[in-house]
Amino acid sequence: MEYRNGTKEIRATTFLYDPRGLTDMEKLKRRDDYARKDIERLENALSLLKQYRLELAKRAQELETMNSHIKISLVREKHWKGAVFYFITKERIYSDGSTAVLYKEKYSGTKRHEAIKNFKQLKNEFPQCDFYEDITKRNWE
């Protein structure tokens, strides 16, 4: 299945008119033709959805068997209004380069020491993980 910009949109809309209100044979035939075409489009959409489910199952199986490692990071961010935040993030990094965020905690700038303390505690609890720390002020601050 082809995805454009990471997505594929399938729309299935049909309008059903009350047949009791139709008296013209040409309109009845036209509505029947519309219904036939709508059924074909809906069957195609159903086929694509079944294919999509297979792709999801395949990706799930790939992720389950793929090599990965855990990365825990502490990062300082200064937002445009001057507020400073610290983020502790735990991510699973897969061998294909994709990542999954397992945990993310946000601390305000005034809770800096608590964030650092929790990060050090995680280092002690999970020594097998990769750790990344970036809490220095930027040169533009």
Quickly list its features.
141 residues, alpha+beta, 39% helix
- Tally of contiguous helical segments: 2
Q: Radius of gyration, Cα only, in angstroms?
A: 27 Å
Q: In total, how many beta strands?
A: 4
Separation of the first and last Cα atoms: 47 Å
- SSE run: HEEEHE
**So what's the overall shape?**
elongated
Mean pLDDT comes to 93
- Quaternary state reads single chain
Helix content: 25-40%
Structural class: alpha+beta
Biggest sheet architecture: 4 strands, mixed
Q: What share of residues are in beta strands?
A: 25-35%
**Spatial sequence of strands, sheet with the most strands:** 3-2-1-4
Low-confidence stretches: none
Concise overview:
By secondary structure, the protein is an alpha+beta fold.
Describe the structure.
- This protein has 141 residues and is an alpha+beta fold.
- The chain has helices at 25-65, 112-125, and strands at 68-78, 84-94, 99-108, 130-134.
- It has a four-stranded mixed sheet, with helices on one face.
- The protein is elongated, with a radius of gyration of 27 Å.
- It starts with 24 loop residues before the first helix and ends in a 7-residue tail after the last strand.
- The mean pLDDT is 93.
